[in-house]
Amino acid sequence: MNQEEIWAAIQTERNDLADLLGTLSQDDREHPSLCAGWRVRDVAAHLALATDIPTTRALAEFARARFSFNRMIHDTAVRHAGHPYAEIIQQIRRSATSRRLAPTTKPLDPLFDALVHGQDIAVPLGIKRPMPLEPARAAATHIWERGFPFHPQRRLRGLRLVATDIDWTAGEGDPVQGPIQALLLLLSGRPAALPDLSGTGTTALTSRLA
User: Fold this and answer.
1) pTM here?
2) Which CATH architecture has domain 133-209?
């Protein structure tokens, strides 16, 4: 995908997520997401901050979290989730046309965020939200090559990942195959990918994703 195609996919995903979030009940918003310790509302708040948090504040939040990246991401999302829900949705919708990037990130990073966090919201609520194939493939290649923060090449060493719905492979070893959507969740460490994967390599995955 070229840059314009990536930004167009981000815009589509963010608008669709805002639409989805607008349909959720109060109970749905408080439901646990795929992210351990995060409610659906917290994931939405994290997405809302994607283009709204300035670099100076991000650095201050990093220090406040005692320089733990994961703690910073979690704490800023939970705090922001205290804002009115309608305001969070509007922030996501406004971000759809923004091309602002967080420090050290590339356009494929917010695309990955929108794709995977959309599943973090939809899957535990029993909502089917198919990923578009080309954006999912581009995001999978990016995350495989990027490393931080998921380090998939290290975690999935000895496995060969094979998409069954689009031309994409990564790694070497025992095969793990499934839709690119499931493989992208696998790359980001989500155990929810397991039911959609097959192959001799899947026996090693449960312990690796724990």
Assistant:
1) 0.90
2) 2-Layer Sandwich (3.30)
